[in-house]
Amino acid sequence: MAYLNNIQNDDCTIHKSINGEDTLSFTAVIEELKTDFLYDENNVILVDDDLYKPLTFTEEHHENGLLTINVDCEHISYELLDKVMDGFSYSYKDIVTVINACLLDTDFMLAGTDVKTKTDINYTEECNARQILVAIANNWKAELKFNKYNIYAYEHIGSDRGVDFRFGKNLKSIKRKVDRSKKDDDGNPAVSYEVDVVNLALLGSDYEQLEKFDLGDTIRIVDSALNIETKQRIIELEKDVLTGKNTSITLGSPMADLRQTVSGLQKDIDEVAEVVKDNAPSWNNIKKITDNLGNVLADKIAGTLGLSSAQIQNSTATMKITDNGILFHDQPTEENSTFACLLNSNGIIFANSKSSSGAWQWQTAIDAQGVNATKVSAAALYGLTVEAVNLITATITGGNITGVVMEGSTIYAGDRKEGTYIAITNTGAIYGYKNNNMIYRYETGNSDGRIELGSAEDTTKKLTLDSVFDVVISGSNTGKASRIWTGCNRLLIGGDKAYELRIELNGTRIMTIEDTGVTINGDLHVTGTTS
After folding, report:
1. Dihedral sign, CA of 85, 90, 93, 95?
2. How far is the C-alpha of 215 from the C-alpha of 196, rounded, in Å?
3. Both ends of the chain: CA-CA distance in Å?
4. How far apart are CA 190 and CA 235, in angstroms?
5. How distant, in Å, are the alpha carbons of 24, 25, 157, 194 from that of 239?
6. Over the chain (531 residues), what is each successive 10-residue block's mean pLDDT?
7. In DSSP terms, which residues pair with 89 in a beta bridge?
8. ∠ CA 174-178-179, rounded to 5°
9. Is-contact 329 320, C-beta < 8 A?
10. Which of 404-441 are b and which e, b meaning 16 or more Cβ less than 10 Å from the residue's Cβ?
């Protein structure tokens, strides 16, 4: 351990931004031993109760003979750059799960969070742990706070301590920037402020609690000359940790910060420059059909895609490209969404509910084979064949259902061309046909019913039974008799010939009536008066 007291005044600055940069830079007089300490890559610097690691050194010999060294440092959390992963993907997880997975096998730990959201992250290419940590914060709408090897993820860092920045008190200068290319939540142009202030909290204990501020705090700025009186958050902070002077603050809404490290910055610039060079013709073509915000200009799109199709807008829906296709859901986070659509080369699937574990329950699919759905709503369906269907409280006026034909209110089943089929009407009647002749009929009326059986060969032969149990037998039966059996064959009324009437009881002939006379087997008993 070494105590660095050779640092030049007014030149020891920490620069921080929400979910972004956290660096330290200072200039020191070159002294033996103390300066050597900086070159040992295993050493870290304790500043403002936090740890920073020296990264770059610039030595300078001044005209007055003074030897100095300028040191740029990164927060200790930048060591997470050394953990490289082939990819990082999780679906509908809480922030504790994904951050712990990101920090696995490192010296860092998640020390606290109040974020309850569940959502997704999907990196399929090589990435590093610090890059993923910032991506997690952006996806889960969290703000990161670092202290040594502890990491915190909160919905909102900082607080409102009631601090005012105003001219004549602690505000040295103010710059207001209005950016119409960006909009706030109300659709107004984004406004940010850059201010230089005096940190009164460093002047003594009387000011320490009243005037203290930090990254993420909400403060009030007042400037009557520019007609400014507003409350804003500190999203970026630069301060001299030794003197408290020259504190510069950016106020506004935090934006996603994609910066990773000072050492990797030049590499990123070179890679981007190479991509731009290789794809310059494509960029020029894209520029022709987009505005300066990247929005597609509908009137520039050729072909059948019309203006109305090109201007599809949705203020809350989210689209993301995954390994499995393009996923849409109806809210900014998948946790809060109630509808999802997944599109890939196999087809489209839809869901409007989730399981107890939070997974989408896909219910409708459209692919090359057709449409599979738990429910289809339509004003009209044309040229439709429906198989294995249950109809509940439905009205159908036409269509084919696996061999069943509906014409108006009558249902036909069977082969009508061959003449063998049944017909069911809306009056409740059922008719059976063979060879196009009716062989049975079941009918209902207002208060009675009727069953009629007929012959497919002779339509004059009929047996009719009505609701008052009248039996009518009609037709031509030359040489044959008609029989009526009752009581499980115990009573027979009929005969073997058309002109014979025979009565049998329990298999014994009792009476025979023919055209030649009447024959009675057994005793004849007559009751009553004869004349």
Report:
1. positive
2. 15
3. 149
4. 14
5. 10, 11, 18, 13
6. 60 89 88 72 87 90 87 94 94 94 96 93 92 94 94 93 81 84 81 77 51 85 84 88 75 51 44 61 63 57 43 57 81 81 87 84 81 68 60 56 68 85 84 87 71 78 67 51 51 56 75 79 74 58
7. 122
8. 140
9. no
10. ebeeeeebbebeeeeeebebbeeeebebbbbeeebbeb
Rounded-to-integer distance, Cα 531 and Cα 524, Å: 17
Q: What is the pTM assigned to this prediction? A: 0.48
Q: Which helix (DSSP H) or strand (DSSP E) does residue 55 occupy?
A: strand 50-61
Give 356-364's long-range contacts (Cβ < 8 A, gap of 24+).
Answer: 358/92, 358/118, 359/92
Determine the residue type at 243: T
Is residue 511 within 8 A of residue 500, CB to CB? The reply is: no
**Cβ-based neighbour number of residue 160 at 10 Å:** 11
Task: Categorise residue 158: left if φ over 0, alpha if ψ from -120 to 50, beta otherwise.
Answer: left
DSSP string, 149-170: TEEEEESS-S-----EEEBTTT
Q: Which of 245, 195, 250 is nearest to 12 (CA)?
A: 245
Residue 220 CA to residue 164 CA, distance in Å, equals 5
Q: What are residue 509's DSSP bridge partners?
A: 504
Which pLDDT score is estimated for 296?
A: 57
CA separation for the pair 84, 479 (Å, rounded): 104
Q: How far is CA 485 from the centre of its chain?
A: 72
Residue 51, number of CB atoms within 10 A of its CB: 19
